[in-house]
Design goal:
The complex is a heterodimer of chains A (262) and B (112). By secondary structure, chain A is α+β, with helices and mostly antiparallel strands. Chain A contains 11 helices and 7 strands. Chain A folds into 2 domains: 3-110, Ubiquitin-like (UB roll); 113-245, Orthogonal Bundle (Fumarate Reductase Iron-sulfur Protein, Chain B, domain 2). Chain B is mainly alpha-helical. Chain B has one domain (3-24, 52-111). Chain B has helices spanning 8-38, 41-50, 54-82, 89-111. Chain B is elongated and about 55 Å long. The chains are: A alpha+beta (262), B mainly alpha (112). Chain A binds chain B through residues 72, 74-77, 100, 163-164, 166, 212-216, 219-220, 226, 229, 232-233, 235-236, 239, and chain B through 2-5, 7, 9-10, 12-13, 77, 80-82, 85, 87, 89. The complex binds iron/sulfur cluster (2 copies) and FE2/S2 (inorganic) cluster. Residues 164-165, 167, 177, 211-217, 227-228, 231 of chain A line the site of one iron/sulfur cluster.
Chain lengths: 262, 112
């Protein structure tokens, strides 16, 4: 934002910004000129350009595609590039903190490695059986399973649901809403062939059965996905697998249902 | 309450958890009263006499509310996890609270 834009401001906002790292820190107050159509990311950028160049934060696309700009705004996780100030301003004040449930690197930038590691633990990768020489499988958009997969597929990995989830804060191993939502999407992909292993990965102690269905994830997901519905789907899938044949087990290892088999 | 928790289904979760804990705390007392009946009529009767006090009746009404809300909330969760997904979870939670309230009110009206 240029300083000429700053001169067209309509007043100023008192913005408390979290400064510090994983060990210590506190809030620092900035007065930021208010602009028409200003987003929270604009506010943070203004502070870095005009008040304190040392402020660390993360963004890339600025149009709600990349999922890198999420922060806690007045205690609620939000994508800051698409959150307008006038929607969230209370008494002309804003509080901006790094995302909850993730270690802070510095100021507003948090470490998302654990969040992405959990995607891998939930087997969030597509595993197909055909090679590049074979024809791409044709899946009609109207197929019931394709529609279920589609409903869960528009995730931008922003971590907002993960920050909103209290079960993540109570149980650090919990895979979390985004990873489980991804797993559900793949479980409904006709071309994927790792369904059984994935079901075992999400049925363990840190998996879908931990979810209390509070729907914080669905309430705040900026893309209006519903991880709670996906997790409920996984729960049903695990029960069905258990009733039908039990989950496949490997000797000596705990299976998806938490049992150790000889 | 933290800002991100201020949404209806978190409150539904909280109500389910708190009612469950309160019922669990009440259980030993419930068993104690049952045990009184094994010790003879007189002991049980003297207790039942005490339970006619208005304050106790109000407390019982609270207990009926807790039981009803925990039962209905539990049914909502069972449906959520075992039936095809429905987007009307907030409505179901509201219906559960309203029904529990009316059950408790019915109990209170009959108690006096
Ligand atoms: S519904 Fe489940 S995954 Fe979503 S926030 Fe609540 S506990 Fe977490
Ligand atoms: S499910 Fe929604 S809130 Fe969670 S990471 Fe994906 S886009 Fe973000
Ligand atoms: S900067 Fe890419 S989603 Fe906000």
């Amino acid at each position: 934002m240029s300083s000429s834009a700053a001169t067209s401001s309509t007043g100023s906002i008192a913005v408390s910004v979290w400064r510090g790292d994983a060990r210590h820190g506190n809030f620092q107050l900035f007065q930021v000129p208010q602009q028409p159509s200003q987003t929270i990311l604009d506010v943070v950028t203004w502070i870095q350009r005009h008040a304190d160049p040392g402020l660390s934060y993360r963004f890339a696309c600025r149009v709600g595609m990349c999922g890198s700009c999420a922060m806690m705004v007045n205690g609620i996780p939000r994508w800051t590039c698409r959150t307008h100030v006038n929607k969230v301003l209370r008494d002309n004040r804003l509080t901006i903190e790094p995302l909850r449930n993730m270690p802070i690197i510095k100021d507003l930038a948090c470490d998302m490695s654990e969040f992405f590691d959990k995607w891998k633990q939930a087997r969030g990768q597509f595993e197909g059986s055909s090679t590049r020489d074979q024809q791409v499988a044709a899946l009609s958009p109207g197929l019931p399973r394709r529609r279920i997969a589609d409903a869960a597929t528009e995730c931008i990995n922003c971590g907002i649901c993960y920050a909103a989830c209290d079960v993540v804060s109570w149980n650090r191993d919990y895979l979390g809403p985004a990873a489980l939502n991804r797993a559900w999407s793949l479980q409904n992909d006709e071309r994927d062939c790792a369904g059984e292993q994935r079901l075992r990965a999400v049925a363990g102690d840190a998996g879908c059965h931990q979810c209390h269905a509070q729907q914080g994830c669905a309430t705040y997901c900026p893309n209006e996905l519903n991880p709670t519905a996906s997790i409920a789907g996984l729960k049903r899938m695990v029960s069905q697998a258990w009733f039908n044949k039990g989950l496949a087990c490997h000797p000596g290892k705990k299976c998806g249902l938490g049992k150790r088999h000889a | 309450m933290k800002a991100h928790r201020k949404q209806p289904l978190y409150l539904a979760f909280l109500l389910h958890r708190v009612s469950g804990l309160a019922l669990a705390l009440f259980l030993p007392f419930h068993f104690y009263v049952l045990a009184l009946s094994l010790q003879g009529n007189q002991k049980l009767d003297s207790f039942l006499h005490w339970s006619q006090l208005p304050l106790v009746k109000f407390a019982e009404t609270g207990l009926v509310f807790l039981l009803a809300i925990h039962l209905l909330g539990g049914l909502r969760l069972l449906a959520l996890e075992n039936l095809p997904w429905s987007n009307a979870q907030k409505n179901y939670a509201a219906i559960a609270v309203a029904s529990a309230f009316f059950v408790a009110l019915g109990f209170l009206l009959r108690a006096f």
